[in-house]
Amino acid sequence: MKPEFILMLTYNDTTVKDALEIFRECRDTPVAHWGFKDVGLPPEEMKALVCEMKDAGKTTYLEVVSLSEEEGLRGANIAVEAGFDILMGTVFFDSILDALQDKPIKYYPFPGHIHGHPSIMDGTIEEIVAHARFLESRGVPGLDLLSYRYVGDAPQLLREVVKAVSVPIVSAGSIDSYKRIAEVWQAGAWGFTIGSALFDKKFVANGSFKENTLAVCEWLEKTSEADLG
To answer: Is 229 contained in some domain?
Structure first.
């Protein structure tokens, strides 16, 4: 199956100030999945943006890149109050899972050891796979894997994590080429996020944000599994 494209209105792991205006400009594109980070906008602006996304029939994602338990809980509360569909990220804590247990929101935490901002992941592939299995055993319905923020072999990591668990895997961070999208597809990940690369015009040089977004959509529509090699 083709992976799902989650468009993140973020740059360097921070939500852009004009996220609402960009969404309005691009809401008629084929992108069904939209999200942003827990940093960069005040909560009231987050809620307004989520409201417009949901009114447009989009699935919404809040990715929390803050790493403490307190900040993770804060992000979870924002996600619930603003009406997001999926909370991505956070270092996993039982308290976050418990806080969302009876809420209409899915929780996709980070497997692996995450540090820094923008986020970096280190450790061995075996350690990250083991952590992914542990998180699945705790009942999380999906995982937010920072594949291309990994200090080692990102495609191998992605393949091994997808193979090890049965929950959906979203490959998040630093996807800036069709080659990396193809690697995500070949690994069998459920989806991937793109944010900064659209602002940096990685897909259409000198093109607008919308033109870069449409280029990714068109590539996904026209490419078949046989084309991946």
So the answer is: no
> Residue 85 domain-assigned?
yes
The answer to whether 73 and 99 have CB atoms below 8 angstroms apart is: yes
Residue 12 maps to a domain: yes
* pTM, entire model: 0.96
Domain assignment of residue 25, given as a range: 4-224
From start to end of the chain, where are the E strands?
4-8, 10-11, 14-15, 33-37, 59-64, 86-91, 106-110, 113-115, 120-122, 143-145, 169-171, 191-194
Residues forming beta bridges with residue 121, ordered by sequence position: 114, 150
CB-count burial class (<10 Å; 0-12, 13-18, 19+) for 115: exposed
Q: What is the pLDDT of residues 160-207, one digit of tens each?
A: 999 999 999 999 999 999 999 999 999 999 999 999 999 999 999 999
